[in-house]
Amino acid sequence: MDRYYNNDISGILLVDKPSNITSFKVVKTLRKILNVKKAGHCGTLDPSATGLLLVLFGKATKLQSRFITKDKVYSGSFLLGVTTDTYDLDGKILSIKQVPNISIEKIKVLAKSFEGEISQVPPMYSALKINGQRLYELARKGIEINREPRKVVVYKFDILNFNKNVLNVKIHCSSGTYVRCLAKDLGDALGCGATVKNLRREKIYKFDVKYALPFEKTNNLDRVVRNIIPL
Q: How confident is the model over 72-119, as pLDDT tens digits?
């Protein structure tokens, strides 16, 4: 392969991640396509989640800590009346309850109560490391450990519509916010439980998914190189 692709690529690639693939696998695939030594991403998306993934190459990987702390915008839907061990539909169903007869106006008011600085307990099924181990690795072994609550900021928690026990939402939040936890906590507040049905990351800082290269189109080397934003 040309030495240009081996040694001289540095920059940021906006990738539109599909569902059913890990963020790590996206980076690994792109590293192989470009034949670069250094590559990383700026914030994990759950395997079932879709949307914007910032992938850094070469010298740009030094910017990872800068971008990983930026705000994010998500859209998605919550399924009311269902709880799972992962807080999304990838997990084991723990309970199914009747959804109370509540208006969307009241749900909007409740959602607003989660705006501002709040505390979240990271889910066991997450990529967070504690004592050198990924929480999801422990969870898969049936091990649950205490997790300290973390302060995060929810700038906007908008309820777009509500139909057949499904809430469509849009959320602007700080880095480190778990939308799955917002779904769980909102469901708990409603008394029926809730879980994420689908989730899509639309923005990281000023980067927008509408300008991202679909992962399915990253199999073409020249196309990938053309879409890399240089330092």
A: 999 999 999 999 999 999 999 999 999 999 999 999 999 999 999 999
Q: How many CB atoms lie within 10 A of CB 62?
A: 12
Supply the CATH classification number for the domain 3-69+206-230.
3.30.2350.10
- Strands 213-214 and 11-17 turn out to be parallel
Active site residues: 46
CB burial class (10 A; 0-12, 13-18, 19+) of residue 163? Answer: exposed
pLDDT of residue 4 exceeding 50: no
3.90.10.10, 3.30.2350.10, 3.30.300.30, 3.30.70.870: which CATH number matches 72-204?
3.30.2350.10
CA-wise closest residue to 87 among 185, 5, 230: 185
CA separation, residue 10 to residues 13, 16, 215 (Å): 10, 19, 19
pTM of the model: 0.92
